[in-house]
Specification:
alpha+beta; tt1808, chain A; 2 domains; 6-stranded mixed beta sheet; 3-stranded mixed beta sheet; 13 strands; 21% helix; globular
């Protein structure tokens, strides 16, 4: 990240934020840049964090070369920056944010409906990210939806209720034990 002065200058006046502004953000901020705005991302509930960790660990156990798995890693999609809960990406990508061309799967855990099914879904699809996994619902009743890229748009390819295992094939084969996610 570069200068705090550049960041403050942009905050002080009208500014249309884009991915090009990302280097000016202070590293301590958890922010997303979309639709011309800079938005601070809340840390999420304890349940949200626990589910994110469980998913990341499950994906990491199933991943093989060239895939890596990380949490809260910024991704650049369609001149916007998003901070998904879990990101599956190819190898060591160097500087942040990770370019969408290196991403195989984005995972979002939804505590309350926000932009995950609208802005993020459209941007991830337009950027060519092949798979998108959403976990939604109250703790203990979360369900999973997997979307695959078909002709530039996401189509739901799998669904699992809160107590059923979910098998996913992209970007590699893995199974999510929904009963474990919902404890």
């Amino acid at each position: 990240m570069s200068s705090i002065a550049g960041f403050v200058e942009k905050l002080a006046g009208p500014h249309w934020w884009t991915a090009a502004d990302y280097p000016d953000l202070p590293e301590e901020l958890r922010c997303e840049i979309y639709l011309g705005g800079l938005r601070v991302v809340p840390a999420g509930s304890i349940s949200h964090k626990v589910v994110s960790v469980e998913l990341a660990e499950s994906l990491r156990a199933a991943a093989s070369d060239p895939w890596s798995v990380g949490r809260s890693i910024p991704v650049h999609a369609e001149d916007q920056i998003f901070l998904p809960d879990v990101l599956v990406f190819r190898g060591d990508v160097g500087a942040l944010p990770v370019s969408a061309v290196n991403v195989g799967l984005v995972v979002e855990v939804i505590d309350q409906e926000n932009i995950e099914r609208t802005v993020k879904m459209r941007a991830y699809a337009a950027a060519g990210i092949p798979a998108y996994l959403i976990l939604d619902g109250e703790p203990g009743k979360r369900r999973a939806e997997v979307y695959g890229l078909v002709e530039g748009k996401y189509e739901r390819t799998a669904f699992a209720a809160f107590d059923v295992p979910l098998s996913v094939e992209a970007p590699f084969s893995f199974v999510i034990d929904m009963s474990k996610i919902n404890t």
